[in-house]
Amino acid sequence: MTVGIEQTEERGPLHVQIASSLRSQIERGELTGGQRLPTTRDLAKDLGVSRTTVVRAYEQLAREGWVEGRVGMGTVVRRGPSAPREDRINWNLLLTPRIQEPDSEYRQVLRMLSQTDLLSFAGGLPSPEFFPGDAFQQLADGVLRQQGSRLLQWCPIEGYPPLRSWIADRLGCVMETVMVLSGSTQGIHLLTQAFLEPGDTVLVEAPTYAGAIQAFRGAGARIVSIPSGADGIDLDRLGAVLDRVRAKFLYVIPTYHNPTGGCLPVAKREALLALAARHGLPVVEDDPYSMLRYDGPQLPTLYSLDRDGCVIYLSTFSKSVFPGLRIGWLAAPRKLLPRLVSLRNVIDLFTNSLAQGSLYEFCKRGMFDAHLQRVCNEYRERRDAMAVALRRYAPDVSFDVPHGGLFIWARIPGEVDAHRLLEEAIDLHLAFITGSLFYPESEGRDRIRLSFACHPPDTIADGMRRLGLALQRSLSSERALSADAKTREAAIPHVVV
């Protein structure tokens, strides 16, 4: 497809002029809703400009709502003269400031998860081929026959008591400190509502789980980030921040971190707890991945090490069994839990009783532990396959091999921007998540997150081959642009005044 760029009266940078020309063609109906625009590479070649210039023009049109990026299709026209009329209500004036505009990068991730024509390493999800669906169907049938009238009725807001008791035994605590949730992300939002007013400070690792950033930002909190890597959060930096900042809580993922895969060693766990106790700092420990351990030592949770009542613990069955359960849990100090239960009662009376009853039978009969052993064996093989394929097909990429979890956190060469690399990858029907999504500030443009759980080794190898090809294309493009810029700079005459 060829798109002509007409002369306009628009002044300013080239990307502004290109955007103005395309906008005019959309307004006149020459480019219609759903129509695909040329790739940034093709249009740049046709116009004799850099690809970056075209990218910026498309980004401007996307911000204005004229076009949108669709995974597998590229950039398409979103609206034209026949677009529906605007709402008469100004929703921006009515909505609370807590309701943020949807993050474009976050929306792109959600689209990639549902795109069937992409070989996706984007989602932080377990593999459907290992879901124990047949076992759960049989267990649900049995639970319905035996306890149907009970489990189809109201359930205590804290959760189905037998399941709470089983969770408490695994944690080494008492049932009265445990509440079952609709996934651990509900726990993040519950704690956000309980603790944070606009302007309050919350501490997070950098990088960290994108959903937590969204929740804290939506509450109007001031997010202060502490660097985190292969051995967890930087305690020296944390201590320095705590000496000058009063925070409501610290949110951490100490075991098989998302996205880095890192682990906080035992000594640093104890030092973190001592630091928290000294400053009176609550610690929210998000622990969705510790059950997915492939090698290395079994590490104690912060919650199990806590002797001062500082830690609030979150976990879930979504990563270890299957996401559709929507069952997670929270464990909190005795004095705090009733307040959280009271708040929960306002927004969500209780979690799916039938699913809780079935899950309890799955756990009580030892099926959960057997399932864990199976998936850990499979995921270990897939992790190793991704590491081998990355070294073979993308030797310019550096990474640490995680001892557990679902992700490899990779660093790409500095001259390549991860978002531009993703564009190249999507042209090859490959998807991953760019690193900037995991930072509250503008960082991570040299990072990508790859999830290895959902594909067998052969498919993983093919995906890393495509990644290597996309990276080589990106490197060639960036180096060509750099050489072109140097040539233009050399051609500019030097004027001595």
List keywords for this structure.
Aspartate Aminotransferase, domain 2; 3 domains; Aspartate Aminotransferase, domain 1; globular; alpha/beta; Arc Repressor Mutant, subunit A; 45% helix
Provide a brief overview of the structure.
This protein is of the alpha/beta class and 497 residues long. It contains 17 helices and 16 strands. The protein folds into 3 domains: 14-84, Arc Repressor Mutant, subunit A, CATH 1.10.10; 104-130 and 370-484, Aspartate Aminotransferase, domain 1 (Alpha-Beta Complex); 133-365, Type I PLP-dependent aspartate aminotransferase-like (Major domain) (Aspartate Aminotransferase, domain 2).
Characterization of the model:
The chain has helices at residues 14-27, 40-47, 51-64, 91-94, 104-114, 133-151, 161-171, 184-195, 210-218, 235-242, 266-279, 302-305, 337-347, 353-364, 367-393, 418-427, 457-491, and strands at residues 67-70, 74-77, 119-120, 178-181, 201-206, 222-229, 232-233, 249-252, 283-286, 311-316, 328-331, 398-399, 407-411, 430-431, 433-434, 447-451. It is an alpha/beta fold and 497 residues long. The protein folds into three domains: 14-84, Winged helix-like DNA-binding domain superfamily/Winged helix DNA-binding domain (Arc Repressor Mutant, subunit A), CATH 1.10.10.10; 104-130 and 370-484, Alpha-Beta Complex (Aspartate Aminotransferase, domain 1), CATH 3.90.1150.10; 133-365, Aspartate Aminotransferase, domain 2. Strand 12 and strand 13 form a beta hairpin. The protein is globular and about 70 Å long. The longest helix has 35 residues, at 457-491.
